[in-house]
Write a structure and sequence with these properties.
The protein is α/β, with parallel strands linked by helices. The chain has 20 helices and 17 strands.
Amino acid sequence: MPISAQLVKTLEEKRKVILNAGGADKLADRKKKGLMSARERLEAFFEPGTFMEFGAHAQNQGREFGLADKQFPCDGVITGIGYVDGRPVAAYSQDFTVGGGSLGSMHAKKICDLQDYAIKTGMPFIGINDSGGARIQEGDAALAGYGQIFFRNVLASGVVPQISILMGPCAGGAVYSPALTDFIIMTKSNAQMFICGPEVIKAATGQTVTMDEIGSAAAHASVSGNIHFVAEDEKHALQIARKLLSFVPANNVQDPPHRPTPTLSLDIDPGMNDIVPEDPKAPFDVLKVIARLVDGGDFLEVQRDFAKNIVVGWARIQGIVVGIIANQPAVKAGTLDIDASDKSARFIRFCNIFNIPIVTLVDVPGFLPGIAQERGGIIRHGAKMLFAYAAATVPKITVIMRKAYGGAYLAMCSADLGADLVFAWPTAEIAVMGGEGAVSILFKREIAAASEPKKKAKELAAEYREKFAAPYEAASKAFITDIIMPSQTRGILAMALRNTLAKRESRPPKKHGNIPL
């Protein structure tokens, strides 16, 4: 017998309520503000017609403070699976039109069930956050829900990529789920992220602050370093997420989505020889180097506005996905400081988890000197880079462009830190310290006794660089693989990457190392 008309009608009516979310008026109001609905966000993210919803008929479980008489369609969150570039991806989207997107026990259960599914099936997990926080009416059940989500964020860490997209408020304890994921994308306007808002800060400390100062995308992108990408609007945020997924595998046992070119090209790029200034102290923009090395200049930079003295991001070199870490001589002379160390160490560890080869471009005069750095713990933070590189077992290829001095040279993945191949340009300088600093110690008396001390120091520094810092000295001791012209770099990197993709390296069995947090 066919399904009765009444059953069909009941299902259609229930679906209508679900699609109506918090009501037609609220949906219309969002549209006037230029905001997508929670469901539209998922539809825009996934390939058309591929979204399979989980728990569409779920309802709030709270019964106190008048909740028993209220309908919360989907309990304020839409969850399910869809396809991005032909690959399944799990995603949820909080619905601010339903109870302010607040998190109750059923809301949390839906997210947790999706997290469990993503871990079991090995697919990326995306969260679109737009919530007023814990549902106060559900009390400790709401807090428990957050704890269960956090626990699964940690379970999923290192298993599947996790991306948080902030398109609305994210406050208090709610911020810790995004903070536990791999990457956070935040829209330039409408989104906020904070533990304590301006009113709480004023009440507790007497300080008057604005939301822009503590919770805006600009503040988190450039000052706190809490987020990784700033989006112009909601559609741009979703584009960034899709772009990010195009460089990473679905899980930790798969290889990245390499697209190797049919033939390996060793063609030279003469323009590369003109990028680096002859004066070793003159700055240059390392992004120009990266643009010439990667396919089509297509480089997805991560945390572009934070710790600008180091550049990290993904690209392809003749089709092979790579994570790039590069000193930026145009900012703080490319020195490593606390923020640069944190930024690069975390990126290195992500690449290692998901089998992404690492290319390191070096021009580092050292760690940034100063009392603020020393008292801020540069020793501990700098050690994170050493730990991350040494622990990484993916292919590691290093190119020394210019300066590579002291401990910072080691921190930028020298052969001693496990680099599989190390190439140097003729402009490279590899030494314990710069020529000027070295001769001021080694030839202190000679310089002091000279009739023109400054001139003598300059001459000795030039001699020191030529004899002890030139790359040929390091090459003679097999600390580097080869000395190459800048124009050869793209082709040699492409060949080196293909030669090392099959790398397998085991380490002593242990739970995990104790990174100097």
